[in-house]
Design brief:
With about 425 residues, the chain is an all-alpha fold. The protein contains 19 helices and no strands. It has a single domain, classed as Sodium/glucose cotransporter, CATH 1.20.1730.10.
Length: about 425
């Protein structure tokens, strides 16, 4: 690592990306889809990890080498494209952040029994407090690292308690037993929740803001990106195994609707729970695990609120210089609007799954733009050489995510039935 490099910034960028990708939406998605797909959901996680790694390495490399945020690179490619991209991602980030605030309410309800409306307000305020300080970015780096470590530790403990069938999980990760068509909505939703929309740019924009740019910083950029993917991968796999252990112990369980399980022998009835991930923890490891689930969901929500607000506002900087001058105030306003909308809407669990699918449709566009920029000498300079293998894999990832998105459009409405 180059002398003078701020290790905390590199690790903070990795955690910012990872915790944005493993927010409350992913917790809910994992519980819902593991309940319906069983061990075959392991294949969905594997595919999403591969596509995530390819997308992140391409986008981080291009943007950090050029020292340009995503929208600025797009504007240089085609005047006006960056504004359209910024508006699209900021809108998707707002939709996702509304769900993140709702996720915070789910966590507080499981942890302390706090009602949803009050939970939304408290979750939003928890994130806003960070941006009241002048050194908000440094504080945010520390917060996401600490909360990220707490989430992984708690999930590991619960995964050991639920005793998942490791052999079956490994087999289905590479050879899924579920019908291929049934996997597509899960792939689209998981992609959106882990690498779609603003999430792809979270870490890269943090590094650009910290000045980690240019040819000589590519090794650091690559290490930060890979670290972020590894952190997210560990969390995803452990959570999947924890929920799979519950699904296998209680055949026929519906994690989305506890009331429906009352008639199934051997499954404890817990009335009034509309939190699939916390419900799975309660079934698998008891009341203490249910409280732990609340802690994990709350931590995931706060880190994701920070990531979504910070990255979405970083896209708005292109529209007017005042956004950059008063960045913290814009981030606070972004979180406040998200909180007000979620407080009025409700229905966090289903919204978290739906907005992830929405962001999944943005991935082919953002990745495609960066791949075109990578070949543009006017933007990247004459010396830049993008690895052919990485560019080719990026193209495959963009086309694959586009195909999955189009294929799955007709099934997204089923999430609300």
């Amino acid at each position: 690592m180059r002398k003078g490099t701020n290790r905390g910034t590199l690790i903070g960028a990795a955690f910012l990306m990872a915790t944005s990708a493993i927010g409350p939406g992913f917790l809910t998605q994992t519980a819902v889809f593991t309940g319906s797909l069983g061990a075959s959901f392991g294949f969905v996680i594997l595919l999403s990890l591969v596509l995530s790694l390819v997308a992140q390495l391409n986008i981080w490399r291009v943007l950090c080498y050029a020292g340009l945020r995503g929208q600025d690179a797009a504007n240089r490619l085609l005047n006006g494209l960056g504004y359209a991209l910024a508006a699209l991602i900021a809108f998707g980030g707002l939709a996702f952040n509304i769900g993140n605030v709702g996720g915070g309410a789910l966590g507080l309800n499981a942890l302390f029994g706090i009602p949803d409306t009050l939970g939304c307000i408290l979750a939003g305020l928890s994130a806003i407090v960070i941006f009241l300080f002048r050194k908000a970015k440094t504080i945010a780096d520390q917060v996401v690292k600490i909360l990220g470590a707490v989430m992984i530790l708690v999930i590991l403990v619960v995964a050991i308690q639920t005793k998942p069938p490791l052999g079956e999980a490994l087999k289905n990760t590479f050879l899924p037993s579920a019908e291929w068509k049934s996997l597509f909505p899960a792939v689209l939703t998981l992609l959106g929740g882990t690498v779609g929309g603003y999430i792809t740019f979270a870490g890269a924009h943090r590094l650009i803001d910290a000045g980690v740019t240019g040819k000589t910083r590519m090794k650091e950029v690559r290490l930060s990106a890979v670290l972020g993917i590894c952190i997210a991968a560990a969390f995803r796999v452990l959570l999947f195994l924890a929920v799979l252990g519950v699904v296998k112990r209680f055949p026929g369980v519906n994690l989305s609707d506890p009331a429906e399980n009352a008639a199934i022998e051997g499954i404890p009835a817990y009335a009034g729970i509309s939190n699939p991930a916390a419900y799975a923890f309660r079934l698998g490891a008891g009341e203490l695990a249910y409280r732990f689930a609340g802690l994990v969901i709350l931590a995931a929500s706060i880190t994701s609120i920070i990531g979504a607000a910070y990255t979405s506002v970083s896209f708005l900087k292109t529209f007017h210089p005042s956004v950059e001058r008063h960045e913290n105030l814009w981030i606070i306003g972004f979180i406040a609007v998200s909180t007000l909308i979620m407080t009025a809407l409700g229905g966090a669990a289903k919204l978290l799954v739906f907005v992830s699918a929405l962001n999944g449709l943005i991935l082919p566009l953002t990745l495609g733009v960066c791949l075109i920029v990578a070949k543009n000498k006017r933007i990247m300079g004459e010396e830049y050489r993008h690895p052919i293998w990485l560019w080719a894999l990026g193209l495959i990832a963009a086309l694959a995510s586009a195909w999955v998105g189009v294929t799955s459009l007709g099934t997204l409405a089923d999430l609300f039935k």
